Backbone:
């Protein structure tokens, strides 16, 4: 075991909080992706895109990419596939921008997907007591806030170099 400067043991990767959260998140995403592919023939990226458009029908490709936290080229490919499948429309927006909207087929697919997502969410939350769910919610908010703060700090360090 490797020691810290203060003599305490360093935690192995399997016990690091960030590693454990990442593994859990990946397992959640993989199981969702399998269900959504099987039941609705959409990928996880397509599901997230449909859900973000459903939540905000004024989205443009740029705003969608920012909301999804993905590269614009990735989002563009996903949207192009959804347009080709008749699930998303691009309409003229302000200036040269084009707004994204769900088609009737897209709304129908979204309704099925959001129902499945809610079923999955209920299964996960049913595992927790009310107190555990509240504690987990607060803990996730705190961790997200700290992670965003650390990300900003790291970006500033990159800008300095």
Residues:
């Amino acid at each position: 075991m490797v020691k810290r400067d203060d003599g305490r043991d360093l935690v192995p990767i399997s016990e690091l909080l960030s590693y454990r959260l990442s593994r859990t998140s990946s397992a959640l995403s993989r199981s969702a992706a399998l269900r959504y592919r099987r039941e609705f023939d959409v990928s996880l990226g397509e599901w997230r895109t449909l859900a973000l458009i459903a939540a905000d029908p004024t989205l443009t490709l740029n705003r969608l990419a920012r909301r999804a936290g993905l590269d614009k080229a990735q989002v563009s490919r996903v949207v192009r596939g959804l347009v080709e499948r008749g699930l998303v429309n691009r309409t003229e927006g302000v200036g040269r921008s084009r707004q994204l909207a769900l088609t009737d087929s897209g709304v129908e697919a979204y309704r099925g997907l959001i129902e499945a997502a809610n079923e999955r969410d209920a299964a996960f939350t049913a595992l927790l007591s009310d107190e555990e769910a509240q504690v987990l919610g607060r803990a996730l908010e705190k961790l997200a806030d700290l992670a965003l703060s650390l990300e900003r700090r790291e970006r500033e360090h990159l800008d300095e170099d």
Remarks:
- The CA atoms of residues 29 and 145 lie 22 Å apart.
- The mean pLDDT is 91.
- The two ends are 34 Å apart (CA to CA).
